[in-house]
Amino acid sequence: MNQSIFNLNGLDISLGAALAAFALVVLALLVTLVVLAARGSRRSAVELAEQSAGQTRRNEALEQRIADLSRIQAETAGRLQALGEGLGGRQAELARVMAERLDAVSSRLGHSMDEATRQTVLRLQSLHERIAVIDHAQKNLTELSGQVTSLRDVLGNKQARGAFGQARMETIVTDGLPKGLYTFQYTLTNNTRPDCVIHLPDQRPLAIDAKFPLEAITAFREAKSEDERQRAAQRLRQDVWKHISDIANKYLLPGETQDMALMFVPSESVYAELYDGFDDLVQKAYRARVVIVSPSLLMLAIQVMQQILKDARMREAAHLIHAEVGRMMADVGRLRERVLKLQQHYGQAGEDMRQILISTEKIGTRAGRIDELDFGDSGEGDDAPRIVPAPPSLRLEAGE
């Protein structure tokens, strides 16, 4: 136990030494910290002074910048005000120009709309008129379709077709020749009756007969294959040649009729088909002294015949024309004699007028003297004749 206390005492001595050493260390540290703090304070003061000088410079630069900014702001405000005023003026000018242009555009647009409206109205009126014309044409087409259907029905019958061709031929002859120069259904000495004969100057009539080979032509046109076309062409040749032979045998009578006859085909298209595709048939008709004519060719032939008949009548009346010319010459001679007598009467009347003017001149002279109370003798005397030009007389000489 005493040993422990000793140890404890020894321990206490060791702890005291240790604490003393620690205190010295702490004191050294404190001294070191004080020294360091003093150095830091000097450095901090210098740095603070430098920072204060730098802050001052920065403040002065900032104040200069603030002054510059204020000046720039004032200048900017002035420029903005001037720009605002300029923009205001330009805006007002722009508003005025826009208003004028809008007025002009409105005026032009109004004029254009009026013109467009007028044009539209005119076009609508024209459209209505054309529609009316189209409606009328449609009605005419409908009527024409009905007439064509009726004509097809008529032409489908041989007797009706023959009557149609004869009626057309009679119309052409009646319009082209005066009455008495033609006869319909004239009876020849062989008891045949052509559809029409025209009486020519040599007292031999020209026979005209109407034929219409419509069925053969229709079959030829509607043929689809080459065999059908050949059969239809053969049938057409047979039908037309039969008509030509009938006309040549019946209506070409030597010494009674003309040496040729006319076969009237009442269709230009049928006539053209015959001449274009069947030239051999046409040549055979010429050799048989039968001429195939269409409506237009018949009109031309009628005009030629009319001129021939007119020339014949003039030749027959040549002695009458000569007598009339002689009587007209005698009338011209008597007219010349009467004109010469009238010229003499005009000459005598002119001389009488000249004498009357002389007397009138004298009476006027005497009246002037009485008015002026001048009764002295004149240089030539009152009874001196005065020359008064005679009025121009009508001079008619023989041959003028």
Detailed description of the structure:
- The protein contains 8 helices and 5 strands.
- By secondary structure, the chain is mainly alpha-helical.
- Among the domains are: 160-313, Trna Endonuclease, Chain: A, domain 1; 317-400.
- α2 runs parallel beside α7 (295-316) and α3 runs antiparallel to α4 (226-251).
- The radius of gyration is 70 Å and the shape is elongated.
- The N and C termini lie far apart (208 Å).
- The model is unreliable at 1-13 and 379-400 (pLDDT under 50).
Number of helices: 8
Poorly predicted runs: 1-13, 379-400
Largest beta sheet: strand ordering: 1-2-3-4-5
Topology order in helix (H) and strand (E) letters: HHEEEHHEHHEHH
SSE layout and pairing:
Elements: H1 2-156, H2 158-176, E1 182-184, E2 196-199, E3 205-210, H3 214-221, H4 226-251, E4 261-264, H5 268-277, H6 279-287, E5 290-293, H7 295-316, H8 318-372
Parallel strand pairs: 3-4, 4-5
Antiparallel strand pairs: 1-2, 2-3
